[in-house]
């Protein structure tokens, strides 16, 4: 494996802590539950993308980039982490963010959008079908004005980004040896797929029996996400020259916890966020870690794990995403029905300005 030879810029405080969750374990009457705190990577508000960016930004530096161009959803954690990395390394950043319409203006500056604004990111809001055009035009116009743009695609789920999560698995294995626990399962949120790809590759490289369960966050159904993660694994293996044999069956995806779309709200997710906060003071986000915790809770309740199993929950960050969902959490706390399940900033939402 060429991992050690890859250029890397230090952005994360590593290793992130591995902690036991005894109260959650008790509440769920199931396996021993631990958490790997990748929400504490230390870049901006932390999260899984810091590990990917260590390799991606090293490549941007090597290519003498002065302006990062990337994009994702309106309240994207990826955009926050990419903007923080760019700023820390003295670069400009443009974010192409998808929303309900080109003229979408939020009622309030909140959550990740507020953080993007604070970091002085240039921003364009576009419909998803116009994303590529906007990205290409931005790159062209930066080049014309003498800049050296560097494009970060697919929320960092490209070979260099995957390297970050192969490393994370090596780190977790060393921590688990220290505390003498062999993890039977790791549960985490899977979106663009790079995190799961790196974890699966890392587990295979170390011949671990840990099964990696990705809870899909609504963008893809299970079979589609298995294909997607497997593609990311294959591309990373080729590009990084890895000689690790991975089968599609090694990629486990559950798709029943996200609601009917990316960023949508369900009572299961809200309950999961409340449960983690109430039992362990562990703050999750409503989009990603709520989905993976809802998955963990449900699998415990269904008796999927045995009592002697040890399960690690990978906290992938995203806490800034909590605040734009405050009305839903308030309604849940008051026992009222949820005011909305499709966020107003989702492309699936109706934009009153374009009606
Ligand atoms: C908080 C959080 N968790 C998990 C993920 C999913 O990671 P990946 O896109 O590598 O599948 C993301 C992606 O944006 C995220 O922001």
CATH architectural label of the largest domain: 3-Layer(aba) Sandwich
What strand line-up does the widest sheet have?
Answer: 1-2-10-7-8-9
Low-confidence stretches: none
Radius of gyration: 20 Å
The number of distinct structural domains comes to: 2
Helix content: 40-55%
Query: If you consult CATH, what is the topology of the largest domain?
Result: Rossmann fold
Q: Structural class of the secondary elements? A: alpha/beta
Q: Which oligomeric form is depicted? A: single chain
| Name of the CATH class of the largest domain | Alpha Beta
Main sheet attributes: strand count, strand direction, barrel closure: 6 strands, mixed
Ligands in the model, by name, code or SMILES, are: pyridoxal-5'-phosphate
Q: Helix tally? A: 11
The succession of helices and strands, N to C, reads EHEHEHEHEHEHEHEHEHHEH
By DSSP, the count of extended strands is: 10
Gross morphology is: globular
Strand content: 5-15%
What is the averaged pLDDT score? 96
Distance between the termini: 53 Å
